[in-house]
Design a protein that fits this description.
It is a single chain. The chain is of the alpha/beta class. It is built from 9 helices and 8 strands. It has an 8-stranded mixed β-sheet with strand order 3-2-1-4-5-6-7-8, with helices on both faces. It is 45% helix and 11% strand. The protein is globular. Strand 1, helix 2 and strand 2 form a beta-alpha-beta unit. The longest helix has 26 residues.
Length: 324
């Protein structure tokens, strides 16, 4: 009987904890207050077919921005929905498979031919888990889609961004960047004998790499008029961690129910980084809830950042002319 009472008390305490945590998450949410008009400006949003990417594209389109939706999925319905909701006809969908370096180069080549300038580049697309251990380029799928593909894409489009009066690059990172084991040796998961739980750090490693890349891009692009920001949207209710493991899926579902934001809420910090006048001239910031916040400790390790950058240049096959 005592055991039953104790169990009931523990259950009640657990429920109260979940409720208080949920209320805290709801009460501390932030939305961008920027009313910037984007008529005459253009933006590329990767992963724009759904989730944060779709909501970001929708928001920018409502401000009059020309949107180039970039995704591996069929975007026709999403594109038509955005046109309908915003009455903005300048919405275009182009195929981009970030798990293929050739696809990234083909996409960039097409953009360079069709666009005179680019005002906003939002590197948002991402995956949480991967079925295979390697892509056709020999890279880890999670690292390639989340990080390497965007690293290459940004390099290839720098010229267009410099032609804008105030180009902005936004990297959508994650709070899970704080949960990582990133090092030069395991950047591409190339360890001969990886530790048992190394694969669980891949997502965090990819998101930390984005923060590091954003900081280095910011430093290298000083004086060009192009600013670079990395952001974390918080825990967002998307199927990015969809898995066949039922227990893992239930765990993710529970966490998302308690702490999760919907994609619209998650997109607010991305939009803020892309349009807010308060951020004009600011570069190398890491934003959460639309305000600067502290980065993971490894992002302050200049030697590691330099090593990761140089290794990334090698992995994506940048030519000497393409390097900054």
């Amino acid at each position: 009987m005592e055991l039953l009472i104790l169990s009931c008390k523990m259950f009640i305490i657990f429920c109260v904890f979940l409720l208080l945590t949920h209320l805290y998450a709801r009460l501390t949410r932030r939305v961008t207050r920027s009313n910037s008009c984007l008529v005459g400006k253009s933006a590329i949003v990767t992963g724009a077919n759904s989730g944060i990417g779709y909501q970001t594209a929708l928001n920018l389109a409502s401000r009059g921005c020309k949107i180039i939706m970039a995704d591996v999925a069929d975007m026709e319905k999403s594109k038509l929905d955005i046109i309908k909701f915003t009455n903005n006809p300048n919405i275009f969908a182009k195929h981009l498979d970030l798990s293929s370096l050739k696809s990234v180069r083909d996409f960039a080549s097409e953009i360079l031919k069709s666009e005179d300038k680019l005002d906003i580049l939002i590197n948002n697309a991402g995956v949480g888990v991967a079925k295979n251990n390697r892509t056709g380029d020999g890279l880890h799928p999670v690292m390639q889609v989340n990080y390497f593909g965007h690293f290459l894409l940004t390099h290839l489009l720098i010229g267009l961004l410099k032609k804008s009066a105030s180009g902005r690059i936004v990297f959508t990172s994650s709070l899970l960047a704080f949960i990582n084991n990133l090092s030069l040796k395991n950047l591409n998961f190339d360890c001969q004998k990886p530790k048992r739980f190394d694969r669980f750090f891949m997502y965090g490693n990819s998101k930390l790499s984005m923060i590091m890349a954003a900081d280095t891009f910011a430093e290298k692009l000083k004086g060009t008029g192009v600013t670079v920001t990395s952001v974390h949207p918080g825990l967002v209710k998307t199927p990015i961690f969809a898995s066949r493991n039922v227990f893992f899926q239930m765990f993710v579902w529970l966490i998302q129910c308690v702490l999760g934001r919907d994609p619209w809420e998650g997109s607010q910090v991305v939009v803020h980084a892309a349009v807010s006048r308060k951020l004009e001239g600011m570069t190398g910031e890491f934003l959460g809830k639309c305000v600067p916040c502290r980065k993971p400790s490894k992002a302050y390790n200049e030697e590691l950042c330099k090593d990761i950058w140089e290794a990334s240049e090698f992995y994506v096959g940048l030519t000497p002319e393409e390097r900054l």
